[in-house]
Design a protein that fits this description.
11 strands, four-stranded mixed beta sheet, about 40% helix, Zincin-like
Amino acid sequence: MLRQIVIDGQIYVYELSRKRVKNINIRINHDGAINVSCPNRTTIGEVEAFMRTESAFIRRSLAKVSYRKDNAARPSTYVDGEQVNVFGERCTLHVNTGFPFKGLRFVYPDIYVNAATPEQAERIYQKWRREKLRAKIKEMLDYYCPMFAEKGVEPPKQVTFRTMSTRWGVCTPSTGKLTFNYNLFEAPEELIAYVVVHELAHFLEANHSERFWAHVADIMPDYKIRRKTLREY
């Protein structure tokens, strides 16, 4: 159930779930949604009193989400002049609507989209974005797969893409399948490369054991720096 609370003059919308838990818990999702869970018999007053004691945590967490969104610069309005990222490089989206023809032209740092409506402009941009990421991932797999072949890893049997809220990539060793998050498009290429290496290493170790990280480090010695930076996106 969605509810509202005012803390220090600021309105926050949160989703309340009653569960078989012992304590009240607050979780800030990757997209900034506030989820609160509480024991079945907890009153709304008790929940909101607890939220007020945790107001600093809520503000701090939402600030991190806001920073991450600004840093990633993913398009949201598709209006002329919107700032977006293309593989970590800040670019400007130029949307021209009302044209009888449609299309997209990328001349760094400008992206020109011609479309009949803003909705069509969004579809054109997203199609281009997806195609660019798929091509980039293929390029990186072509580069890193031979390195893993020396460790006995066969190339992935299937590579798929989808938008995910909490994971950059998924490896399914049993089927030889890799899945990558479309939101990698806004991240710098060196961070995308880290995700590719990370998922390929799961063909050797399905967990995050010391052996797993040793394989990652063997291919990418600076992986710790890249992994930390990726959290900003």
